[in-house]
Amino acid sequence: MRVVVVGASSGLGRCIAVGLGQRGARVALLARRHERLEKAASEAGADAIALECDVTDPASCDGAIQKAAEDLGGIDALVYTPAIGPLGRLVDTGADTWRRVFDTNVTGAALVTAAAIPHLTSSSGTALYLSSVSGSRTAPWPGLGAYAVSKAALERLVEALQVEHPTVGFTCCIVGDCAGGEGDAMTGFANDWDMDQLMKFHAIWTSRELVAGTLIDVEQLVAAVDAVLRGGASMSVASITLAPRRADPPA
Fold first, then answer.
1. Distance from C-alpha of 41 to C-alpha of 37, rounded to nearest angstrom
2. 2-242 is classed CATH 3.40.640.10
3. For residue 30, what pLDDT is reported?
4. Measured between alpha carbons, how far is 141 from 96 in angstroms, rounded to an integer?
5. Strand ranges, E, within 151-193
6. How many helices (H) does the chain have, and how many strands (E)?
7. Around Cβ 246, how many Cβ atoms within 10 Å?
8. pLDDT recorded at residue 248
9. Could you give the C-alpha distances from 46 to 7, 38, 43, in angstroms and in order?
10. Which helix (H) or strand (E) holds 199?
11. Taking a C-beta distance cutoff of 8 angstroms, is the pair 90, 68 a contact?
């Protein structure tokens, strides 16, 4: 299986890329930070390749996908993982922040997919996109409104792509709380958040039972992604939801 994983230099993207490589896939790892990519590629197998890609740059997306297809001899699967989620109220979210969120979380997915479609069509392949429970499975999380809106848009994008390209399998993988792995494999989603704001919002999330209190084991997340990608051309998986099991039953 020839797989392109976008956002593979850190966090869940890195975990998925390395995990798929260790399960026998030939993986092209795409992201902006080349040094981190090279390190991840070394863990993903001898055939893994590292390619710089900025998902906010159309030329970069097209070039990286074409290079990946050339080096892999085609593309059987595409995994899109990049996402940013600024913390703050919607009324305090400016136009530049909205653009930045959509450029990475939605438009980047569209650009990468457009470049990969000819290859995925040729292989009757599969494209999988990481979304969030906050986009469609729970009530909106206060403080993460822009992120939730972008993930809802991503999910609609995936549905629209499936309509336009019925011979390619499109899957939205909706994920709950998962910290990733260790080091570069740990998610950096909250790295830029203001801690005082986080404490206030976290209290709200907890009171509304939006936080499960447990985390998904990243190895189990990778296994689920691997199973979808290996499902075969006769099957389409429109959506899967991976949520952490709660530690205690609801009162």
1. 6
2. no
3. 98
4. 21
5. 169-175
6. 9, 7
7. 12
8. 67
9. 20, 12, 8
10. helix 195-207
11. no
Q: Which two tokens stand for residue 75?
A: 């593309």
pLDDT at 213 (0 to 100) = 87
Distance (Å, whole) CA 129 – CA 133: 13
- Provide the pLDDT for residue 251: 57
Instruction: Tell me what pLDDT residue 247 has.
Output: 73
State both tokens at 83: 């996402």
Write out the two tokens for 41.
């590629």
DSSP state of 104: I
The pLDDT of residue 249: 62
User: What is the model's pLDDT at position 61?
Assistant: 98
Phi, psi of 193 (to 5 degrees): -75, 145
Name the residue type at position 185. Answer: A
Neighbours of 203 (CB within 10 A): 10
Q: Please answer whether residues 171 and 128 qualify as being in contact, where contact means their C-beta atoms are separated by less than 8 angstroms.
A: yes
Task: Pick out the chain residues at pLDDT < 50.
Answer: none
